[in-house]
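agent> fetching stored inputs for the alpha-D-galactopyranose docking request
agent> found them:
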Amino acid sequence: MVSEHDSISERRRMMESAFVRRFGGAPTVWTRAPGRVDLMGSHTDYNEGFVLTMSIDRDTWIAARPRTTGRVAIYSMNLEGGSVFPLDNIDHDDTHPWTNYVRGVAKILSDLGYELTGFDGMVHSTVPFGSGLSSSAAIEMATAVMFRRLGDFNLDPVSMALVGQRAENDFVGMNCGILDQYSSALGQEATAILLDCRHLNHQTASIPPGVAVVICDTKAHRELTGSEYGERRAQCEEGVHILQQFYPDISALRDVSSEQLSAHAESLPPVVERRCRFIIQENQRVLDLARALSENDRPRMGRLMSESFAGARDLYEIVVPEMEAMMDAISAAPGFIGGRGAGAGFGGCLVALVDAARTDEFIASASESYPQKTGLRPDIYPVRAAAGAGNLDF
Ligand code: GLA
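agent> prediction call returned; pasting tokens
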């Protein structure tokens, strides 16, 4: 059996060889940052709400060697090509769009006045792309840690997460909230965290022993995310704007109760009312799931996750047929406790809580039944909570 240590040294050797082939010479500095899975709290982050999130043992590594020329050369072992850019004039690379996450972080840090050191860098990721597990936040945070290390400046993890979010918002053009970058920067080993997206802090929320977190990747690609995501955000903002006429003190949906929404439901366009209702209920479910986990109340975990899935389907309308097929497959599988969509929706992954002793049976059953309905081969695997972004010291 391959131990974790073996696979770490194997990965390191593989990256070293790729680095030597590309740049000639060995890397001297290594950083890493994990992907994340949200156990509860879809689209609550940009409504200043709560999310129960977990950084996972799928991560992105960067192996690098500093350069004195004020340039960054960045290549990937997962994706074609790479690019070179000067730190004093950072532009987009439309031919290699993945490098824009690296460029964006460099641009924001440099705009904030940090002295950046250039480097040759090789990236390797075990976070699947486009499945809702935050591969982009992982490369952003690994890049930020790299600049921090090479430039020897202070950048606390919350500020680092904000830099990554600004890189997405202002440079890449994805109007995301703080969830992904915060989870990647501040996630903790062996525990989920309950993130407060308004105050940008968190507390730990441990997963009971005997409960496994299982990623159920539908392999349905998310294509609509960009425009649909922006539309959902705008609908939430419209709801807040209308409700402010009745409740001048509210500034986000986090401040609105279900009763307040019901009292003025007819003042909102029906679609806006549905979006707001989902967010308000989902936000409460985050707190309720944290409690259900702490009390090891499996039936309640299951109910809350099912309600989240139903709301995402009927009210927020971010569920596609493959996600429903996956939900059917996993709900019928042995050991299933609960499941719901992860990330932004529109395809990608579901996350399930499973009786740890039955994980293998669960995976075998769902992997067999899901393709019968979709013709797609899913990827279903357990994950563990891993540490947030940092240096890799070998
Ligand atoms: C994406 C965004 C996050 C968050 C989730 C949905 O992952 O990047 O900010 O809004 O969708 O919860």
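agent> quick read of the result: Residues 211-383 form a domain with the Alpha-Beta Plaits fold (CATH 3.30.70.890).
agent> awaiting further instructions
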